Fold this protein.
Amino acid sequence: MKLTNKQIEDLMKEMYGKEILPLIKLFQRKKNINEFKIAEKLKLTINQVRNMFYKLQDRSLVSFTRKKDKKKGWYVYYWTFNDKVAKNLIISHKQKKLDGLNELLAKEKEINYFLCKDKHVRMRYDEAMDNDFRCPECGELLIQEDKERILRAIKKEIDIIEKEIKLK
């Protein structure tokens, strides 16, 4: 399966924040893009653009070649986005998320929780018992949480991520 621009953009936003998205949109799927042209299009300084590229380079998401400008005497970098590394990073990221969800599912199956009707608190059985099954915020009686709804939601999310990982 081919990596989509949206998958790349979602990962970059999650890892680096939305500030990096204009840069990603401008140069993904292209090779050897001049950093001065990117800075000009984004209306940023060359140092700001280079700092963004350096963050991406830390995870090998970009590579570069540099050439010396004969007139000015400084180096100009030409950047390329590495789709293969991005794809592996997306899979790795999804696998970590999947592991966390599986842990959460096991925990939710094992523990009974009690809720305040106004959603002030969510407590394990032992904590609720210590509070005489009353909300410490409002004093209302705690009710046992419907576990099945939460378990279904977690399982649904697990299924979605598992399918996404298998497609890659």
